[in-house]
Amino acid sequence: MSGVRRAHGREGGARSLTSPVPAHRYRTAPLPLPPPRRGEHRGGTGKAGIRPCGDVRRGCPTRGARRMSGGDMAKPLLGHRSTDGDASVTPATGRAIGVLGSGDFARSLAIRLVCSGFKVVVGSRNPKRKASLFPSAAEVSFQAEAVKKADVIFVAVFREHYSTLCDLADVLVGKILVDVSNNTEINQSKESNAEYLASLFPACTVVKGFNVVSAWTLQSGARDGNKQVLICSNNQEAKRTVAEIAQVMGFTPVDMGCMSSACEIENMPLRLLPAWKIPIFLSLGLFLCFFTYNLIRQVIHPYIREQKNKLYKIPIEVVNTTLPCVAYVMLSLVYLPGVLAACSQLYYGTKYRRFPDWLDQWLQHRKQIGLLSFFCAALHAGYSFCLPLRRSHRYQLIETAVKQAVEKKMNIWVEEEVWRMEIYISVGIIALGLLSLLAITSLPSIANSLNWREFSFIQSTVGFIALVISTLHTLTYGWSRAFDENQYKFYLPPTYTLTLLVPCTVILAKVIFSLPCIQHRLLRIRRGWEKGRYVKFVLPSTTGEYSSGETSSNV
Ligand code: NAP
Question: Does 87 have pLDDT greater than 50?
Fold first, then answer.
């Protein structure tokens, strides 16, 4: 798995139980902004239909490109400055920062700004009442007075109240407004809140930022929660100023390009586990399938055939036979896309061919699939641990003991069964331990402390060993049941035989790939070798026109 590579980067996007780098690292770079350009306009997006507040003294910039050009993105906004003991960032501290609003966000922001060495002026509609809520170092005054004293103003007010700030338009001219607002729904309005604010104040420069940071994170000083602050604006200088403030506050500013990205940034806090949707639906789907299958075998079959009511089995027994099936199949699904990727590379004889989108998606979701497999395995361990605590189990034990006493059976020891159970539990514990190791090392804080080889060894080699041991666990559970015709309820084979299908295919494929002839070819492909390097070109005809015949050349 570790060796499967894509044309541009490793086989999967997200750092996972098997893939190395978090998805967001591909998407954004920590603040690679260019230095300010001469003659750059300040101002908003100038939307038609919305009457701008106040005097429009500067031209409105046109809607910028969706993203900054590659060249721009490559330049660091803050150069190579670091906040840790670097004197070059000190000038940012001490400057006056304005905050409009006195709500939760404004208060937390003011506290963090004061702690970071900034002078804070808060603008409120009712400063007398709100002053006591802020740290004494922050100055709380009327909105107009506050904005006069600062060049950078955080607008900690909801979008619907932006228009009430229009009276401040004259004093806000030329200032940087930081729009921190969020929505309650994804794509709530046609234009983003930041673009709306910019259209109301075209004489100001609007920067979108800090909305992905909660008031709580601000108060706790970026120790807990997300440290990234996503920033976008059409004005590079303003963006750089806000990024510098974020960095001094202990956050990691991330450049998201120009103002047209504001909508995306505003949607981000509203998205509910986007990377988990597919894995969760997959595990739920598997759970439902196996649950129904086990229900038919363990509850419906005895009811129909023997009129026995076994409904009591549903909450624990049926669930506990379903969970390991899901965990086991999900674990094999972490390794199956790697096998398919290897097959594709072997078939086409190149690593420079794009995988189909479904395979790409699958590769990127392996971390989540692996973690859900671990979750189900942990639940299975918990349920199994509690099995002897159930009343039904006690009754069954007593019933068996009484039956044996009546039949005067003295020795009930079955050597084979004893060994089967010992091995079954032992390999189960080992498999769970290895899965825990995989889950722990997929946590960013742990993964970051490992080098690439260590990470790939744990996720790839140890992961595969976990799959093999889980297979042993399943086989010792089933033992010879697959050959016992009483186990075929309604002609349905025991559940464990079904779960073995995908994992055994993966193990078999891995064994085949480890054969020297195939392994060698795969390794060559992954180092850049290609089967046939044909380039097709068309020769011009003597008449000056292009001939219809194609010539192939091996380069
Ligand atoms: P909040 O507690 O309700 O505060 C909003 C503030 O807006 C009020 O305290 C009020 O201060 C001011 N305001 C100005 N004009 C107003 C008007 N016409 N009507 C009502 N209030 C007016 O809200 P919040 O939680 O601080 O959120 C503020 C902004 O930050 C929102 O856009 C929100 O999306 C964003 N945000 C919040 C969080 C968070 O964790 N809370 C996180 C990210 C982003 P005065 O009465 O002093 O004028």
Answer: no
Q: Is the dihedral of CA 77, 81, 87, 89 positive or negative?
A: positive
Using an 8 Å Cβ cutoff, are 200 and 162 in contact?
Answer: yes
Question: Would you give the DSSP letter of residue 13?
Answer: S
* Residue of 7 and 450 predicted with greater confidence: 450
Helices (H), 60-168: 70-74, 104-115, 127-130, 143-148
Report the separation in Å between the CA atom of 60 and the middle of ligand 1, taken as the mean of its atom positions.
27
Identify the residues whose C-beta falls under 6 Å from ligand 1: 101-106, 124-126, 130, 156-158, 161, 164, 180-182, 211, 214-215
Confidence at residue 540, expressed as pLDDT on a 0 to 100 scale = 61
For 241-266, the pLDDT digits (tens) are 999 999 999 999 999 999 999 999 99
Return the number of other C-beta atoms located less than 10 Å from residue 113's C-beta: 26
Residue 344: other Cβ atoms inside 10 A: 17
Q: Are residues 52 and 200 in contact, defined by beta-carbon separation less than 8 angstroms? A: yes
Residue 455 CB burial class (10 angstroms; 0-12, 13-18, ≥19): buried
Full-model pTM: 0.71
Select the more confidently predicted residue: 11 or 508.
508
Specify the pairing of strand 96-100 against strand 119-124: parallel
Which of 104, 124, 265 maximizes ligand 1 atoms within 8 Å of its Cβ, making it the mutation to test the pocket? Answer: 104
How far is CA 362 from each of CA 11, 322, 356, 534, 538, rounded to the nearest angstrom? 10, 23, 10, 30, 39
Nearest to 182 by CA among 155, 164, 163: 155
| Plot region of 536 (φ>0 → left; ψ -120 to 50 → alpha; else → beta) | beta
Judging by beta carbons within 10 Å of its beta carbon (0-12, 13-18, 19+), is residue 403 exposed, middle or buried?
exposed
In tens, the pLDDT along 9-35 reads 333 333 334 333 333 333 333 343 333
Kind and range of the H or E element at 97?
strand 96-100
Joined together, the tokens standing for residue 357 give 């989108």
3-state DSSP call for residue 254? strand
- How far the first Cα of the chain sits from its last, in Å, is 30
**pLDDT per residue over 519-532, tens digit each?**
999 999 999 998 87
- Residue listed under structure tokens 């983003």: 192
Contact in structure between 81 and 241 (CB atoms under 8 Å): no
Beta bridge partners of 139: 121
Considering only CA atoms, give the Rg of the chain: 32
What is the phi/psi pair of residue 371, to 5°?
A: -65, -35
Structure tokens at 57: 């003294």
